[in-house]
Design goal:
By secondary structure, this protein is an alpha+beta fold. The chain contains four helices and five strands. A five-stranded antiparallel sheet has the order 2-1-5-4-3, with helices on both faces. α1 (3-20) packs antiparallel against α4 (106-121). The protein is globular and about 40 Å long.
Length: 126
């Protein structure tokens, strides 16, 4: 785990747990060059391809600039829907997190994204 995330890992996990409760499956921090899984629920297998997921989620770095200054407003977060759960990606500048969860009400995704974005804004990944 990179040193810049060490001090914030517990804070990110606490925010994710507060917003999602028992529905939290995993929490992963990423930058353009690094990926660190901060949490994986004990009933899940460690077989996920984190590097592959990270490559896909890094597209969000480019997307946040593409959506800047549009009538939609600033990019806030992305939710992806899968057969067995959801993936929520939050990016701030040069770093981000993705959280996987079981099914939840949409309001909880917004609460999750807002809490994580606040923490990401509070530190510089470099």
């Amino acid at each position: 785990m990179s040193h810049s995330i060490d001090a914030y890992a517990d804070e990110l996990l606490s925010a994710a747990r507060t917003a999602t409760g028992d529905e939290l499956r995993s929490l992963t921090y990423f930058t353009a060059d690094d990926v660190d899984q901060l949490y994986l629920r004990s009933d899940l297998s460690r077989t996920a391809d984190l590097v592959g997921f990270a490559e896909s989620e890094r597209n969000g770095f480019h997307a946040q600039s593409l959506y800047a200054d549009t009538q939609l407003g600033d990019y806030r977060f992305t939710v992806r829907v899968f057969e067995n759960g959801y993936l929520t990606r939050v990016i701030d500048g040069e770093h981000g997190v993705w959280v996987t969860t079981d099914s939840m009400d949409i309001d909880r995704f917004e609460e999750l994204a807002s809490a994580l974005a606040t923490i990401l804004r509070s530190f510089d990944p470099v």
